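Let us practice reading a record.
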Amino acid sequence: MTQLIGWKDHIDLPEFVLMDIPAKIDTGAKTSVLHCRQVELIKKGRKQFVRFVPLDDRFGCSDKVYILPFYSERKIRNSFGQEENRYIIKTKIVLFNQTFDIELSLRDRAGMEFPVLLGRSFIRRKFLVDVSKSNVSKKQKTAKTN
């Protein structure tokens, strides 16, 4: 059965110990994206890694630097229609008290309202989007803790 989700919600990224992050459900975007700063590709020995600082002060984040294995690089069309190369990482996301694997592109979204966009590749076969609703997962989580 497919879970109903609204046009926005809150997610957890447990591998980064980041909780209650605002996310927009974006059916117009193919790839999901995480707001990051100081994104760069580095080499350790013969292997490539991506180094980045997720989120910023608006979301209560520290300046902790993460280094994850390089997964891929893709050409992604931004909201202005311009193509740009972005590094992709694989991580875990918690939504509706379930943990999912997710691929996230890393991009500086400092001027944007939502630090995370959940795109079609993630939403497909998991969620049905009802744009008249919001924070469905967060409301369920809050109801269970009260």
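A brief commentary: The longest helix spans residues 136-145.
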